[in-house]
Amino acid sequence: MKINRPFPFQKDFVFLLIFISLFLVVFLFHGFFSAKEPVQKGDGGQGEESVRTAAVGEAAEEGPEVGKRAPDFQLPALSGGRIRLSDYRGKRVVLNFWASWCGPCRKEMPEMAEFYGKRRGGGVEILAVNMTFSERNRLAVEEFAREGGFTFPILLDEKEAAADLYRIITIPTTYFLNEEGIITGIRIGPLDKKILEDFGEGGK
């Protein structure tokens, strides 16, 4: 059987077509995956890293640990009505657990009152959760607050609900929350002016 062999120029033309086809495939393949590469975060850039961080912040796990979203709760206020922690989203919050019979708690309260007087309305709030279930009665809390002239919100944890949520063992214990309600720091023991001022200036 006779085989018709292509002329030399036909053979070269076939090789050229194959080469061009392979080049186009490689070019398109590279272009497709290059388009999917994340934008690197630079000066003022919005790369994958910043987007991922924002997404994690929105879906942060809830719990009483640094880096987690502070567990939400609602408690009656000493001044009347009820207060929900999440209502303060958008502000940085000093969430303090205390009792009127606690010596270190009584010691830190004037510092908190002074700080609140200076920072009130400036994007920082204090919520003082009284361990009412451990008090003699509510009157003891009212007398202590009145004598101290405290104007920050005092919440009454009458059934140990918030204390359980935050696993409070020692008082005073304070949680520092950022504007998104994420816990940025925890203090076990009394607060002082420096700790409060550092937080007020944007620190943990």
Automatic annotation (TrEMBL):
Residues annotated as domain Thioredoxin: 64-204
Signal sequence, start to end: none
Gene3D superfamilies: Glutaredoxin
Any Pfam family hit: AhpC-TSA
Annotated keywords: Disulfide bond, Membrane, Transmembrane, Transmembrane helix
Name by which UniProt lists this protein: Thioredoxin domain-containing protein
Molecular function GO labels: antioxidant activity; oxidoreductase activity
Organism name: Caldibacillus debilis
InterPro entries: AhpC/TSA, Thioredoxin-like_sf, Thioredoxin_CS, Thioredoxin_domain, Thioredoxin_ResA/DsbE_sf
Entry annotated with the keyword Nucleotide-binding: no
Region annotation (Disordered) ranges: 39-70
Residue intervals passing through the bilayer: 12-33
Classification of source organism: Bacteria, Bacillati, Bacillota, Bacilli, Bacillales
